[in-house]
Amino acid sequence: MNPKLTRRRFIKGVIASGVAVSSSTLWYSARGQSRPAGAVERLIRLNVNGQTRSVDVAPNETLASTLRYKLGLTGTKLGCNRGECGACTVLVDDVPNYACSVLTHSVKDQRIETVEGLESPNGDLHPVQQAFVEELSPQCGYCTPGQVMAAVGLLRANPNPSREQVRQGLSGNICRCGAYESYIRGVMRAVEIG
Q1: Nearest Cα to 58, choosing from 69, 50, 66?
Q2: CA geometry: angle at 63 spanning 59 and 68, to 5°?
Q3: Which residues contact 93 (CB under 8 A, 6 or more apart)?
Q4: Residue 164, CA distances (Å) to 13, 43, 123, 161, 167 in order
Q5: Separation of alpha carbons 188 and 160, rounded Å
Q6: Within a 10 A sphere around the Cβ of 44, how many other Cβ atoms?
Q7: How many CB atoms lie within 10 A of CB 162?
Q8: pLDDT over 70 at 32, yes or no
Q9: What is the pLDDT of residue 20?
Q10: CA distance 99 to 87
Q11: How far is Cα 87 from Cα 100, in angstroms, rounded to an integer?
């Protein structure tokens, strides 16, 4: 006779299976054996803003979640959380990436740079940040960290871009306030500041 499947029994079964999977992973680790095929390392080391940091990361965890909720780097904003707005833009090996669309495990051997990592050791702002302040580029400021990181990535790849190249370089970042021209002027000023 089959016991009737209830919601309570279903949830207990899910919890029990999760415990069994976790236990088996610990058992393999304790015995010095390698992880079972398909298992993902949880405790990884990330190079973020020039520092190596150890962090416990779920297999399906995005870089944006890791940066904000595990490492406390809240300059990386979550807007759309699906790779459309650019508020979560960070640099991975100097290339702008949407952190909400990158799995943390996929970048564990690369250099990650967030807006918090741009300030110099003596407290000076990065030329892009300084130029954005001088041009009054931000309005509400929500998209600003992503705009800054996209601009820094652009200027590292092309230190002397044209206005059209700047427009293209920032095109993946949505500004809800419509301050696009101010951001473009800010990048052009950053080129002058150098």
Answers
A1: 66
A2: 115
A3: 110, 111
A4: 58, 43, 32, 8, 5
A5: 9
A6: 17
A7: 10
A8: no
A9: 45
A10: 9
A11: 9
| Residue range 99-123: mean pLDDT, rounded | 95
Placement of tokens 């954005």 in the chain: 132
The pTM assigned to this predicted structure is: 0.79
CB 60 within 8 A of CB 106: no
Q: Compute how many other C-beta atoms are within 10 angstroms of the C-beta atom of residue 130.
A: 15
pLDDT score recorded for residue 45: 95
Task: Classify residue 94 as left (phi > 0), alpha (psi -120 to 50) or beta.
Answer: left
One-letter amino acid for residue 85 of the chain = C
What residue ranges define each of the domains in the chain, with the CATH number in brackets?
Answer: 41-114 (3.10.20.30), 118-194 (1.10.150.120)
In this predicted model, what pLDDT tens digit does every residue of 66-94 receive, in sequence order? 999 999 999 999 999 999 999 999 999 99
As a whole number, the mean pLDDT across the chain is 87
Task: Name which residue leads in pLDDT, 4 or 185.
Answer: 185
Instruction: Return the structure tokens found at 86.
Output: 């650019």
Indicate the residue type of 23: S
**55: β partners:** 44
